[in-house]
Amino acid sequence: MFVSKYTAQWFVQHGYEVYVLNRGSRCQVDGVHLICADRHDAGLAHLLKGIHFDAVLDICAYNAEDVTDLLRALHHFDDYILISSSAVYPETNPQPFQETQPVGSNSVWGKYGTDKIEAEQALLALCPQAYILRPPYLYGPMQNVYREPCVFECALKHRPFCIPQDGSMPLQFFHVEDLCRVMEAILLHHPEDHVLNVGNPETVTIKEFVEACYAVAGKPLQLVSVSDAIPQRSYFSFHNYAYKLDVTLQATLLPETVPLEEGLADSFRWYIDHPDDVIRKDYIDFIDKNILKTDC
Description:
With 296 residues, the protein is α/β, with parallel strands linked by helices. It has helices at residues 2-13, 44-48, 64-73, 111-126, 148-156, 176-189, 206-217, 260-273, 283-290; strands at residues 19-22, 33-36, 52-58, 76-83, 131-134, 137-139, 161-164, 170-171, 173-175, 195-197, 204-205, 223-226.
């Protein structure tokens, strides 16, 4: 997950001593201490024995087992922050979603959302003073998910871009640097609220997002409107699901967030140097065969 790698780098660059727990199958950020193990390894508790952590930033826990296995292996720590997801809110809740609303199954996110709910519940049962952050779509440098990189690729290839219908569906984003800044603020100030929605206060439409991506790439944009008869996820990297998080509580810790255009420029600069690090999907092939009907 690109967020964990970016987080490690950000905290190193801001003067923190950072330990990274992973299997060591990929290159590590310079300056971290690698604990080469899986969080589910029986011997993890022995590896962590004698280490006191001021904070545990759990970026990659997807279910209750992920949380409980790590907590059982930890011996000494002060704070615990879990990165959860906005997927924990059922789409039937009134919007914008607030932290006080009930969580529940979401038909769009499915098991991913219910697993995140169970992870949150497991954490609070074992560590009631832990903090939980619920972001919308995360973006920024090191983004290897085929979201803004898909738009950048189309821009650089001088392709028209296919958007669902008129592109008016809103999207909410949060830059990974802002996520790191929120986590640091929590560690410094220990706010009273332990469950926080995080994200940009404003949403943008699909059309505005694509326009901003082409603009930072310096390429002209031609839009192609696609009928809702074609499933959106077969050609576009976001679900056909409009929602918004209320991030009022976040504002006390992070009064200002990175503007989307500035954040996309960060992401584009990284993408130019690391195009092969992106996990691509077959959107372009599907578009050429089923929407634009080209042979290229």
